[in-house]
Structure formats: structure tokens, C-alpha cells
Specification:
The chain is mostly beta strands. Helix content is about 10%, strand content about 45%. The protein has two domains: about 80 residues, Immunoglobulins (Immunoglobulin-like); about 80 residues, Immunoglobulin-like (Sandwich). The chain is rod-shaped, with a radius of gyration of 30 Å.
């Protein structure tokens, strides 16, 4: 009789102890890892074997939605964490990825064609930034960020610039547009 109970007990332990568990696997992707401030970021949840989720947006906010949406008001690098839980909340898996948030910006390149003789350099100042034009382009420029030009990347907005070379100077405004490049010739 004791042997019968022992056999039943061993079978019970084997059957319940060998139960296959489907541990949760946390997984998410971003449509973009770089965004600008005040843009909606909607991570795509690709977790498996999970029924509950805890998101941390890296900015002090937590969410329990399957796929929450985040917005960031300040530029910086944020670590987003997803914790996926199984049905009994005992099993969990964690994954982290980062998103870079930037201020909306555009570019401006100041250039000079050399038609009027100046000293070998033209200085250009916007705010607290100063760049120097060291090359002249008689036929114009084809793109922003050309070598020898005064190149600026600035937040979207309107800016006053001051440029000078020897006794000649220029004062004007330039409008920076999101993701665009302006090419400003100094005459």
C-alpha cells in the first residue's frame, strides 16, 4: 500500500513539476529613435506570453497600457523601459531602449562670392555663436554645411545676425525653418 502511495506521489510531482511555463518576453520597437520635442512617440509592443505591462518613459511617468504614447517637452536622451508580466504576475521580463529628443531645428549657411574685396575672412554672429567664412564661392554654393562657409544649426525661429569684415558689416534677420537649410549670400 505504501508503495502505491509513493508511486502516485512521484507521478503527481512529475506531472505538475514538469509543466511547461511560457515566461513573458518583453519586446518593443520605436518607429523612430530620434524625435523632436512635443512630438508623440508610440512604441510598438511585440512582447510574447505577457498579459500585463508596465512602461517607464524615462521622464518620470509610468503606464500600464499595451501600447501607450509618450511626449517629451525637453530635449535629451530618455531610457524607456518595458516590464512584461505573465498572467500570475510572478514571472516578468524587462527590456530597455533609448530615444533621443531634440529641439526642432534648421540650418543656415552664410557665404560670400568674393565679388567685393574684403579681408580674407568674414565673421558672422548669431546670438552667442560666431562662425567664419574663409572661402569664397564665385559660382554660389550647392548645399548647407559647405567647408569655408559660416554654418549654423539653430532652433526654429527668427534670428538677427551680424557679419563683418574689415570696415564692411551686414545686419539683418534670418528665419530658421524646421528641417530646412537656408543659404544666405553676403553682398
Amino acid at each position: 500500500m505504501n508503495q502505491h502511495y509513493l508511486t502516485v506521489l512521484v507521478l503527481f510531482i512529475l506531472i505538475t513539476g514538469c509543466e511547461k511555463r511560457n515566461n513573458p518576453q518583453a519586446c518593443f520597437t520605436f518607429p523612430h529613435n530620434k524625435i523632436i520635442t512635443n512630438t508623440i512617440l508610440a512604441p510598438e509592443n511585440c512582447s510574447e506570453n505577457a498579459t500585463e505591462f508596465l512602461w517607464d518613459d524615462g521622464n518620470g511617468n509610468q503606464y500600464t497600457d499595451f501600447e501607450p504614447v509618450f511626449t517629451y517637452e525637453e530635449p535629451g536622451k530618455y531610457c524607456v523601459t518595458l516590464t512584461a508580466y505573465s498572467g500570475n504576475s510572478e514571472e516578468q521580463n524587462v527590456v530597455t531602449d533609448s530615444v533621443e529628443v531634440n529641439v526642432p531645428s534648421g540650418k543656415v549657411t552664410f557665404w560670400q562670392n568674393g565679388s567685393i574685396q574684403y579681408s580674407p575672412q568674414v565673421k558672422v554672429t548669431i546670438g552667442d555663436q560666431t562662425e567664419t567664412i574663409t572661402n569664397f564661392y564665385p559660382n554660389g554654393i550647392s548645399a548647407c554645411d559647405m567647408a569655408g562657409c559660416a554654418n549654423f544649426t539653430l532652433p526654429v525661429g527668427s534670428y538677427t545676425f551680424h557679419a563683418w569684415s574689415g570696415t564692411t558689416s551686414w545686419d539683418n534677420t534670418v528665419e530658421i525653418e524646421l528641417g530646412k537649410c537656408k543659404k544666405e549670400q553676403l553682398w
